[in-house]
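Example 3.2
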Amino acid sequence: MRVNETNVKVRYQETDQMGVVYHANYLVWFEIGRTSLIEDLGFNYADMEESGIVSPVVDVNIHYKKPVRYGQRATVKTWVQSYDGIRVTYAYEILTPEGEIAVTGESKHVCVKKDSFKPVSLRRTFPDWHEAYLTALGDA
């Protein structure tokens, strides 16, 4: 299994009155990690979107364990948890500066045509991307 690690510095605007990262900002960090993983695999969303395909989130789960605070650096770990040729589930761990798990989660995505939102097979539309996901999972 291939795991991407991305560091994020907590900015003031990402925190609440207690100086703790506001809960919805972790979803933004998930996206940062997911985009970085995809780039590590040799691809990017812009190329996919230019061909008329988008990959919306269809489900997301997040579990809060410990706070991350203003001025700290967090590590976002991201990997492909499951993939079936159309749907992909990414998993995430966000670590505190001490390496403790602050947040875990998953996001599920499906590739669809941008104009109609009809599902498309990544396997057929982007075979190289398909193979990279299988390799990232350790299935290839």
